[in-house]
Write a structure and sequence with these properties.
Helices cover 20% and strands 26% of the residues. It is globular.
Length: 540
């Protein structure tokens, strides 16, 4: 680099000849699972080179990383692109791509306006870093951030893939010594509560400053087409894809599938298998998108493809929410029923003693980036730790596609706390997890001042817009659930399960645990609690 920092790059190209070809460029880490290179063979066979980079401060690259996605990475990117385009195997055209951390570096690459970059391909990656990756609902996603931090330290200090190049003159001990000074991700976020708090005193940067949502206008000014992949069950990546679709005016293809972070089938999602593995299918889509981005970028439309669970069908839309969406309102009612008819009685309420052992487990949507397969097959047992409301049996099937919303009239004995709401399907006596939403109660207020377009309630999660609850006062708690597309089979029931903790995943705020919290959930004619389901009306 310009400051003489050594950056490690792997180049994968066709054996036996040097031909000018476009290059898929990934900026993250060169260390991958054993068969990763073999998985990329379709890209090479289709006429592309692949360049995989250890970003500054990781792997075999020198330097120190004091911040996630620092500006120096963009400066390094320019230097790396300049080097690639001068090589005899490069035709000067670059497609940035990657998953997780590398997805965000690909998205940020639009900021440098380098004409060599023809498209950005992202698998995962948060659009809003605070609310989608680190603090969903304003609650610290403690276990996942801890695992992320540990994984990063591995890439910085242990998993260092040696560079076979005479110019690589630094010893491994020299590299490790430099990396020792890198920021610790867990330590950076552990003490933060609000989106406008500084990550550390040295950088004077808050989370929004390293979030792509903060740079939407600049990213849009770069006209390179974007391809964004998420999942109904991979963290909040479905929300990330939808938020990009709504906020980027340029050519954009979004895909939301039924897989986990490693493109494996999700257990208990009622999705259906394909003849080809998802990895192979997506690589073929990458190739098609790259070719069109290079040859005819203006022909790429703005489309969102999504998979409907239970039906096993891929669908496509030009708008979100869907124009055929109608909100079905179900009311919390007496005897823990969910009913189409509103409650007629006054004074109805249900008491819930928060169970801090309630959890979605280590195989939830929140742990899949760390190679945990997603498995929600145990919800019936976990529901015993929640307060639940269940519908009578629906005789006919129907489709839910969009963002369910829950409004709960709640009073608590504490000023703070966390609430988790799960939407579930009961079919043939088995309880299927569909989706969820969560909220730290001090963020109960929403705002009309949106930083970006969103199809749900918007919260800034800033300190000035937070507010402690007044004990035993009734609050209107509005919680958007993660988007979902599912065909509800005939003779099924819908259930709402409410908990006060997700112990394997989210932080428990100890100041809200003593004395043991008891909630009252009101569901009467004066204070109705409801869920609104985005039901798709058939056009036939």
């Amino acid at each position: 680099m310009q400051d003489d920092t050594l950056i490690a790059v792997d180049i994968i190209t066709e054996k036996g000849s040097i031909v000018e070809r476009p290059t898929f460029l990934q900026l993250g880490h060169r260390w991958h699972e054993k068969d990763y290179i073999k998985q990329l063979n379709p890209l090479v066979q289709e006429g592309y080179n692949i360049a995989i980079v250890d970003v500054r401060g990781t792997g075999a690259s020198a330097g120190i990383r004091s911040l996630l996605w620092p500006r120096t990475e963009l400066e390094d990117l320019n230097g790396i692109i300049q080097w690639i385009t001068q090589q005899p195997w490069s035709d000067g055209k670059i497609i940035t791509y990657g998953s997780d951390y590398a997805a965000t570096t690909s998205e940020f690459s639009a900021l440098i306006n380098n004409e060599a970059i023809k498209a950005n391909i992202l698998f995962g990656g948060a659009y809003d870093l605070y609310s989608e990756a680190i603090f969903p609902g304003g609650i610290f996603l403690e276990r996942a951030v801890e695992a992320w931090s540990s994984k990063n330290r591995d890439y910085e200090l242990q998993k260092i893939k040696i560079v076979q190049d005479p110019l690589y003159h630094l010893g491994i001990s020299d590299i490790k010594h430099q990396h020792q000074s890198n920021t610790n991700i867990y330590d950076s976020f552990f003490s933060i509560q609000f989106s406008d708090e500084k990550i550390n005193s040295e950088s004077n940067v808050d989370i929004s400053s390293i979030s792509v949502s903060h740079y939407s206008d600049e990213i849009c000014r770069n006209r390179s087409p974007m391809f964004s992949v998420g999942s109904w069950y991979n963290g909040k990546t479905a929300s990330s894809v939808i938020n990009r679709f709504l906020n980027y005016s340029k050519s954009f293809i979004g895909i939301i599938g039924p897989w986990d972070n490693y493109l494996r089938q999700v257990k208990n999602s009622k999705s259906q298998s394909h003849s080809l593995p998802y990895k192979q299918l997506l690589l073929l889509e990458y190739v098609r998108f790259a070719k069109k981005s290079i040859t005819d970028p203006t022909s790429i439309p703005r489309l969102l493809y999504y998979y409907t669970l239970g039906e096993g069908k891929w669908k496509v839309t030009e708008t979100w929410p869907l124009p055929t969406q109608q909100m079905m309102t179900l009311y919390f009612n007496h005897k823990h029923m969910l009913t189409i008819d509103p409650p007629e009685l006054k004074g109805l309420k249900s008491e819930y003693r928060v169970d801090f052992k309630s959890t979605t487990g280590a195989n939830s949507r929140w742990h899949t980036p760390f190679d945990n397969p997603v498995n929600y097959s145990n919800r019936g047992k976990q529901d015993k730790k929640c307060i639940v409301f269940t519908t009578p049996t629906f005789k006919d099937s129907f489709e839910i596609t969009g963002h369910p919303h829950v409004i709960i009239q709640l009073s608590s004995m504490h000023e703070d706390g966390t609430i988790f709401v799960y939407l579930e399907l009961i079919n043939k006596r088995k309880v299927y997890y569909l989706t969820e939403g969560q909220l730290r109660l001090i963020h109960w207020k929403s705002t009309n001042k949106h930083s970006y377009k969103t199809p749900t309630i918007y919260r800034s999660f800033t300190k000035s817009e937070s507010e402690l609850l007044k004990p035993n006062l009734i609050y209107d708690i509005r919680i958007p659930l993660e988007p979902i597309s599912v065909k509800i089979p005939e003779n099924s029931k819908i259930r709402i399960a409410i908990a006060g903790a997700d112990s394997n995943n989210f932080k428990i705020y100890t100041e809200a645990t003593k004395p043991h919290p008891i909630w009252n959930i009101y569901h009467n004619s004066e204070f109705p609690s409801i869920i609104q389901l985005p039901v798709i009306k058939s056009l036939t």
